[in-house]
């Protein structure tokens, strides 16, 4: 558990409205617009991601937060084109812009821009992007490493897949990356199997693999869930240091707002496949607008929480994805629910005053069109 501390402050679709934020003056390296990912089942259609839009800028950390089942990980899998049938992207854009390679980069790739949602998932271009330009730190490294091969062999394979080089040079690069992430005795650990390492060392090894090809975008999917609190703090500090050294952009997916307070520059709050609110981390923590965001913040412990007093909880539970409520998806659990409005119309993600956008009728009266269905 992490206690909340004060955070430091193509075919175009409409961009998510947002006010100025630190590091948001350049062209985004990743732009997601109106992304919809559905699963067609015999019982009906599950709209796991239902119109998500956000931007990730160079050198920025964007945190995607929400309860389990809100669509965070499906958004990540959609970006990497790792969806398994019957899941598929039915609408939207995922525009990736490869930046100019830095002076110390080993890459020879030229900058390019592509809508990943339009590329074949197993095509040459998508396989070039996946792992080479956009890398993943998975939630459970034990399930991600093959138990039959050493971690060194697997890192070497990833390097040579994206950057042709002799095996001896790839071995040097792999050991260098293991050393960079703080792996003790990297030459010896290179020949170890994943099941021979502790949870913290496995996490460092998977981070080394993700960074092996110097990606411009790093997606961290709940990277601290399966480790103890002490190791969690070390891993978070490691990711922050590596991000500062390499200048990578990070998409940090978690349900832990304490981690978001430490890591993120910009926050996207999701609920039942939709973005409820987004903005700079300082605004989300100090001036939350959406009732769901306020409820999330109240339900986590802080250093100032009164001892031996139960924390507030969010009433009810996330609706079944096949039986979504009409109107705002959060209205059955919302303390500010307005009958005849919130249960009839779906609020659009809109900025009423030029600041960060919010999808709530408490702040504006702009509704989405054609989405008020059960």
Account of the protein in words:
A hairpin with a 2-residue loop joins strand 9 (266-271) and strand 10. The strands form two sheets. This protein has a six-stranded mixed β-sheet with strand order 6-7-8-3-9-10, with helices on both faces. Strands 2-1-4-5 form a four-stranded antiparallel β-sheet. The radius of gyration is 21 Å and the shape is globular. Helix 7 (199-211) packs parallel to helix 8 (229-246). With 374 residues, it is of the alpha/beta class. Helix content is 27%, strand content 19%. The longest helix has 18 residues, at 229-246.
Features:
374 residues, 19% strand, disordered N terminus, 27% helix, alpha/beta, 4-stranded antiparallel sheet, 6-stranded mixed sheet, 11 helices
Sum this structure up briefly.
The chain is an alpha/beta fold and 374 residues long. The chain is 27% helix and 19% strand.
Rg estimate, integer Å: 21 Å
Shape: globular
User: What is the CA-CA span between the terminal residues?
Assistant: 36 Å
**How many strands appear in the DSSP assignment?**
10
Number of helices: 11
Low-confidence parts: 1-22
Q: H/E element string?
A: EEEHEEHEHHHHHEHEHEEHH
């Amino acid at each position: 558990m992490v206690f909340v501390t004060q955070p430091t402050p193509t075919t175009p679709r409409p961009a998510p409205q947002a006010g100025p934020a630190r590091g948001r003056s350049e062209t985004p390296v990743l732009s997601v617009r109106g992304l919809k990912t559905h699963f067609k089942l015999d019982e009906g259609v599950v709209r796991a991601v239902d119109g998500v839009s956000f931007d990730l800028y160079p050198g920025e950390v964007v945190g995607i937060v929400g309860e389990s089942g809100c669509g965070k990980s499906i958004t990540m899998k959609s970006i990497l084109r790792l969806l398994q049938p019957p899941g598929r992207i039915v609408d939207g854009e995922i525009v990736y812009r490869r930046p100019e390679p830095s002076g110390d980069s080993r890459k020879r790739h030229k900058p390019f821009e592509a809508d990943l949602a339009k590329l074949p998932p197993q095509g040459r271009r998508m396989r070039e992007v996946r792992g080479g330009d956009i890398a993943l730190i998975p939630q459970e490294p034990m399930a991600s490493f093959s138990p039959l091969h050493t971690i060194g062999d697997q890192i070497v394979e990833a390097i040579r897949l994206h950057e042709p080089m002799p095996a001896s040079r790839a071995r040097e690069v792999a050991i260098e990356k293991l050393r960079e992430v703080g792996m003790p005795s990297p030459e010896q650990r290179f020949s170890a199997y994943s099941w021979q390492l502790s949870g913290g060392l496995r996490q460092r090894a998977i981070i080394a693999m993700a960074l092996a090809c110097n990606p411009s975008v790093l997606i961290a999917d709940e990277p601290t869930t399966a480790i103890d609190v002490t190791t969690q703090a070390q891993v978070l500090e490691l990711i922050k240091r590596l991000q500062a050294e390499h200048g990578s952009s990070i998409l940090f997916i978690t349900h832990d707002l304490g981690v978001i307070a430490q890591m993120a520059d910009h926050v996207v709050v999701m609920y039942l496949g939709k973005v409820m609110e987004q903005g700079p981390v300082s605004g989300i923590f100090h001036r939350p607008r959406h009732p769901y965001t306020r409820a999330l913040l109240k339900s986590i412990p802080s250093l100032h929480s009164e001892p031996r007093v139960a924390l507030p909880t969010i009433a009810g539970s996330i609706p079944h994805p096949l039986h979504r409520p009409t109107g705002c998806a959060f209205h059955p659990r919302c303390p500010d629910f307005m009958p005849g409005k919130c249960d009839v119309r779906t609020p659009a993600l809109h900025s009423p005053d030029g600041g960060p956008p919010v999808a709530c009728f408490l702040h504006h009266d702009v509704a989405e069109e054609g989405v008020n269905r059960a």
